[in-house]
UniProtKB/TrEMBL annotation:
Gene3D superfamilies for the chain: Aspartate Aminotransferase, domain 1, Type I PLP-dependent aspartate aminotransferase-like (Major domain)
Catalyzed chemical reaction(s): L-kynurenine + H2O = anthranilate + L-alanine + H(+); 3-hydroxy-L-kynurenine + H2O = 3-hydroxyanthranilate + L-alanine + H(+)
Alphabetized InterPro entries for the sequence: Kynureninase, PyrdxlP-dep_Trfase, PyrdxlP-dep_Trfase_major, PyrdxlP-dep_Trfase_small
Gene Ontology, cellular component aspect: cytoplasm
Entry-annotated residues carrying N6-(pyridoxal phosphate)lysine: 244
Enzyme Commission code(s) on record: 3.7.1.3
GO terms, biological process: anthranilate metabolic process; L-kynurenine catabolic process; L-tryptophan catabolic process to kynurenine; NAD+ biosynthetic process; quinolinate biosynthetic process
Name of this chain's protein: Kynureninase
Protein family: Belongs to the kynureninase family.
The keyword Hydrolase is assigned to this record: yes
The protein's assembly and partners: Homodimer.
GO molecular-function terms, A-Z: kynureninase activity; pyridoxal phosphate binding
């Protein structure tokens, strides 16, 4: 059977042992009630059907128990975040002591920089990738200003070479050979949000550490998308959100990783609150501050349980499937997507995401010859929900938990239709 046919896509869905998970998600529909082809799980993941029951449980316990819910709820609220730790650690390849769910992503990035960005007069610079997500750039620049440094001089950009989009490790090596002794922190997006390039975190960490720099990653586009192995990477810290591939709802809480080697270091400077304090004596309210070991020691506040319930609903699915099976499917699905796109002609379609499946997750960033936002609008009208980034990139992320081979087939088929019509016009 030819691969570029609907029948082939259908057959792949039948062979896919994870295909039934799609039924566990609400798939958005158009005005006529037809399911949309949703390719933006990299921006906001879809809602698991069981999320409502998880949140309802907490609403019910709150209604029936009031404050007693902290200890008497079916899932007591005081230790609620602990119910997420093990699954979250599995998702990002970390040990439980290294992981906590708290705050939001950019807030966690700042908290991590309070502890791991320790500039001196001569070593104060921060290396980030030139196409970093804007929030990360703003956070880094504001940390420089906060410490009294010039935010333009203090940022060193790891840039692609001319006429290229992807970053090369040799260039980071060069930067660190030349400026390593001025660099306090290397802070990179683990999977670049724009190109979809999945970096070798271990290699980057090794490079940074060799030059005496701290190394941290923003894994917003990695968590739930690729096998992260944060512990083995040796990174000092990492942060990620849970509303993208981790399907926990708009603005939901974020994850944070602090490497085990820092777990018992009470001398690290940090911002604290009562939730970073020893659980046994937290409610005595008068004690000297006694920090919790591990990532939990960076918590500030008692967390929003309703959001945590949504995260639990989602992580229970990830835990059941396992990140290995998920990424195995993802490689097939995105590989098929890439194959179909290439059928449209490599003179018209250019994929800037790395070709090597180990250097990307599910997202493909696609450039279409002479395209502008009108193309994206036509795709949207045709029921394809994708993401447009100026100047000319369409980002599509078939998420292996709920996207199918047929989704990918229809996406490319509609794109082909639109391109053919454009030619006739
Ligand atoms: C999505 C994303 C963010 C968003 O930050 P919030 O604090 O969750 O609003 C930040 N950085 C990266 C790399 C992202 O992909």
């Amino acid at each position: 059977m030819h691969k570029a046919t609907l029948n082939y896509a259908k057959q792949q869905d039948e062979l896919d042992e994870l295909s039934n998970y799609r039924n566990q998600f609400h798939i958005p529909k158009d005005k006529n009630g037809n399911e949309l082809i949703y390719m933006t799980g990299n921006s906001l993941g879809l809602q698991p059907k069981q999320t409502k029951a998880y949140i309802d449980q907490e609403l019910e316990d709150w209604a029936n128990l009031g404050v007693e819910g902290h200890t008497e709820a079916k899932n007591p609220w005081l230790p609620y975040h602990e119910f997420l730790t093990e699954s979250m650690a599995n998702v990002v390849g970390a040990k439980p002591i290294e992981v906590v769910t708290m705050n939001t992503l950019t807030a966690n990035l700042h908290l991590m920089m309070v502890s791991f960005y320790k500039p001196t007069k001569t070593r104060y610079k921060i290396v980030i990738e030139s196409d970093a997500f804007p929030s990360d750039k703003y956070a880094v620049e504001s940390q420089l200003r906060h410490h009294g440094f010039n935010d333009k001089e203090g940022v060193i950009l790891w840039k692609p070479r001319e006429h290229e989009e992807l970053l090369r490790y040799e260039d980071l090596e060069d930067i660190l050979e030349k400026h390593g002794n001025e660099v306090a922190l290397v802070m990179i997006g683990g999977v670049n949000y724009y190109t979809g390039q999945y970096f070798n975190l271990k290699r980057i960490t090794g490079l940074g550490h060799k030059h005496g720099c701290m190394v941290g990653f923003d894994c917003a586009h990695g968590a739930g998308n690729v096998q992260l192995n944060l512990h083995d990477s040796g990174a000092d810290f990492a942060v990620w959100c849970t509303y993208k591939y981790l399907n926990s709802g708009p603005g939901s809480l974020a994850g944070c990783f602090v490497h085990e080697r820092h777990a018992h270091n009470k001398d690290l400077n940090r911002f604290t609150g009562w939730w970073s304090h020893n659980k046994q004596t937290r409610f005595n309210m008068r004690d000297e501050f006694d920090v919790l070991p591990g990532a939990e020691g960076w918590q500030l506040s008692n967390p929003p349980i309703l959001s945590m319930a949504a995260i639990k609903a989602s992580l229970d699915i990830f835990n059941e499937v396992g990140i290995k099976k998920l990424t195995d499917k993802s490689k097939k699905l995105t590989g098929y997507f890439e194959f179909l796109l290439k059928q449209l002609g490599e003179d018209i379609i250019r994929i800037i995401t790395p070709e090597n499946p180990d250097e990307r997750g599910c997202q493909l960033s696609i450039q279409v010859l002479n395209a502008d936002k009108a193309l994206h609008d036509k795709l949207t009208d045709a029921g394809i929900i994708s993401d447009w980034r100026e100047p000319d990139v369409i980002r599509c992320a078939p998420a292996p938990l709920y996207n199918s081979f047929q989704d990918v087939y229809y996406m490319v088929d509609k794109l082909k239709d639109i391109l053919n019509k454009n030619q006739i016009e």
